[in-house]
Amino acid sequence: MSGKIKLMQEPNFEEAIQYALLKLRAELPKSFTYHNVWHTQVEVATAVSRFAKIEQLPEKELELLQVAVAYHDIGFITFPQNHEWMSIREVQKILPKYGFNKPQIETISNMIGATRLPQSPQTLAEMILADADLEVLGRKDFFTRNQALRDEFRYLNRPFTQEAWLKNQLDFLQNHTYFTQAAQSICRKQKQRNIELIQKKLAKYPIDSL
Q: Contact at 8 Å (CB) between 126 and 114?
């Protein structure tokens, strides 16, 4: 047996993330007005960093979580209706090339799977990603981003009347719960305000139609 100690290869986190972002930027149709590279690179990544800091997520877990962020919507390129599982398939195919081992890939896959609705995260890192993915529900720009989502639904042949859309979104917000204390403390008040604003918009419709 050789006296040399075999060092474990460190994954190339930066290049793995850049691969995903470049693929999203190059291959996602422009009609994806919500689930686009901005949603991944700015919206979710920023929320993850914020929540992870408050929750004191260990650095090693945060590194894997940042990779999960980059890949969590990459499945929209091939199959939007089942994008989480397609994203996981991409992770399992691509990440070994960047030095990730099987346990790391499984951890990242589980993080991505935790964003699938209805969300059911098990670990703190999974909870952070699930909350970050829907942080928009508790933001002041909710209605702007919500319109982008509705436009994307229309592109995917899922049109809604204004009334039906508002009812759908009200039901979603009322049944949604943030998992981390960080998201709850930051998003709770504005989310409730957004619920009230939707209810106010719906009040304009005849009672018989509600």
A: yes
pTM for the whole structure: 0.92
Compute the distance between CA of residue 142 and CA of residue 165 in angstroms, rounded to an integer: 14
Residue where the block lists tokens 């964003």: 115
User: How many beta carbons lie within 10 A of that of residue 195, not counting itself?
Assistant: 17
Q: What digits encode the pLDDT tens for the residues 112-125?
A: 999 999 999 999 99
First to last CA, the chain: 75
Task: For residues 101 and 9, give the distance between their C-alpha atoms in angstroms, rounded to a whole number.
Answer: 9
Helix or strand run (H / E) with residue 4: none
Q: What SS3 string covers 62-120?
A: HHHHHHHHHHCCHHHHCCHHHHHHHHHHHHHHHHHHHCCCHHHHHHHHHHHHCCCCCCC
